[in-house]
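Chapter summary example: a protein plus EPU.
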Amino acid sequence: MNPPVRVLRDVSLQTRNTFGVSARATLLAEVNDAAHLPELLAGPAFRGTSPLVIGGGSNLLFVNNPQDPLLALTGGKVELLREENGTAVLRADAGTAWHVLVMKSLALGLSGLENLALIPGSAGAAPIQNIGAYGVEVREFIACVEAFEPGTGQWHRMDRDRCAFGYRDSVFKQQSGRFIVTAVEFALPRQFNARLGYAGIGAQLTTMGISDPTAAEVAEAVIAIRRSKLPDPAVIGNAGSFFKNPVVTSTVADALLASHPAMPSFAAGADADRKLSAAWLIDACGWKGHRQGDAGVSAGHALVLVNHGTASGQQLLDLARQIADSVHARFGVALEPEPRVVGAHW
Ligand code: EPU
């Protein structure tokens, strides 16, 4: 049995971030049972601090050592809470590895999360940036998020509306530091409704010789696409997409399309705004496969920054700034990082 809380001092963070950059934390608590959070945060080590919660470390860039103590929620329990009218509620501790949860949900005969297979990170991080891939965002399947609020000592069960989800955004990002996500409840349908609209999934299923896929087969197709396009953080350090796809007004999009007809653009939510492809903009500026020392841009996908070995967080940030500056100079579009940058301002 793991102890409910383990407090570590002067800890290397190199293996706790998927970029694999070196950084150290003066204090890091691993919390296996979130019920112990209030006591831990009121104790001498954490009182008066704003702890930085670290999940799978797949959405962080350490540019400097974090000033605040770190919290890692390590509980990984997944439970089927109830099932009504063909929808099951599956609850996962924040520390559950995301892909493990996706595979468990499929093994239980539940659907919804198949397009989100193989996304690195933890279940607790999923609502924070409303993870999304292949035409699905996790918000659609979130019933409620359990969170502790250190400032007031209150526990919350926050429904979808309170989470204020947007593209790679939520109340947890907007009010960063206010809530600690401790568990997530997912509402998952028994009846599978295939979501194959995103370019590439249909083609992959055809290659696999599948015409009427099950949810598990869609997950398999997604896994194959991700493996072919995105570098595996276990092999080469990266944090997935480094930039969000920029959202611009339709006027801006139309002006860009007039001079760059090949530029991809997509509807962005309910309003008239358009979402552009950051990967395409970066690719068009010639960055794909570019390398500065050990900091580089993936040769497979222009949106992914990679650490070829010993790049520092500062070197990766410098490269990211050069990329954003060149995209801005050529297209007039501002790029924003997707991962949380710790120890520097964007
Ligand atoms: N493209 C290029 N050059 C490249 C890569 C892509 O021009 O090097 C073009 C493609 O031709 C395509 C467009 O860019 O027209 C979009 O590419 P892709 O389908 O790979 O998706 P993306 O918009 O770059 C987003 C998510 C990914 C997610 C994929 C698939 C963001 C920031 N990224 O990427 O999420 O896996 O869609 O749905 O929204 C992540 O967030 O870490 C992540 C990997």
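Key point: The chain has nine helices and 20 strands.
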